[in-house]
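One-letter codes give the sequence; each number marks local geometry. A record appears below:


***
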Amino acid sequence: MFNVAVIRLKDLIRFIFLGIGILIIIFLCKKSFNKKNIEKINIVQKISLNLGEYVKQAVNTELPKIKNETKEMEEIDNSENKENKLLNAIIGLELGVVNAKEKVVENIQASKEVGQSTDNEQKLEKEADEKKRENKNDNKTEEETDNETENEEGLEVELAKENLKTEVITKNPIADAYTKKYKGVKIKNETSYDLSDEDLNPEKLKIDKSNIIIFHTHTCESYTSSKKYTYTPTGNFRTTDLKYSVARVGDELTKYLKKYNFNVIHNKTYHDYPSYNGSYSRSLASVSNILKNTKADIIIDLHRDAIGSYSGYAPTVKIGDDECAQIMFVIGTDGGNLKHPNWKSNLQFAIKLQEKANKEYPGLFKPIILRNSRYNQHLSKAACIVEVGSTGNKLEQCLKSMKYLAKIIDEI
């Protein structure tokens, strides 16, 4: 029984030591594991700390750059905005200069067409402003103004007589060039059309003469100053004073036509002032507006002729005791590729009138000029340009012509 107990005690001691050994091993293993984990943690922390320091250093290094770059970008943006503003200002200034140049060019071109400088256009403007300040006719109707003009003449309206001796008395006359002659009417054909007798025959032409429209594409055209009609022309025989321009001649024609019981609309709008360019576009608008309310076949665009640098040229005819400026028709066609279905009837109307004038007052009319330009004559079947005298003629000579022109219009 003793031996068994001893063996069991030894086994117990061995078991205890074994257990202690296992515990020691476990403890050592655990301690070793914990140490490694701590070392790992320390390494991770160290790495993190180092990385943090690096990031912090990198951030501290880069942020000022970013800040500076941002500042630079802002400065660039501001600079660009300033440059854009400056550029816009420059562009605006350049556009203003371009517009100003265009205006100057337009005025110069206008001046070339009428033979005057930009300074003269400024004089015209000053003259017009002065006339506006005078404000004499602001509250007067056109009819009252016409009556005043008639009263200024101090003469009653004397209609033209027949069977008067007529002769051309032009000093240094220019030969009347023409390419076609039809029943005594001379035509200077400047187009490519081959005019047949059928094209020129006015027999079938029917004109409604209940209304007549008179207007002026070049309202400021004027004549040589005289003792009776003294004025100061601006540029190459131009003035905004309607008492001395072709508008005054239009008044005279209106006065005589009314004596023949025509209903006349005389439009005296400035179409060539302050800009000469675009005159025909503006006069087209004026006449088109009139035609909205008033039907008219006979439409007269009354002008003053000009023979280049020959400013003293004054085509004149003496009818009885009257010295009259010669008259000339200018008829347009569709030769300039603008639609114009009425050009043949317009030409026939001019031929019919001039044929009658040649019988009554030979020499009153110069040859008809036929051109490619349309001249707004597409608006009716009896539309025409009537050139009354030239730059060398005096206003009184042109006024006298209207007495005879009105009679011819009435007779046809």
Notes: The radius of gyration is 50 Å. The CA atoms of residues 1 and 172 lie 180 Å apart. The chain has a mean pLDDT of 79.
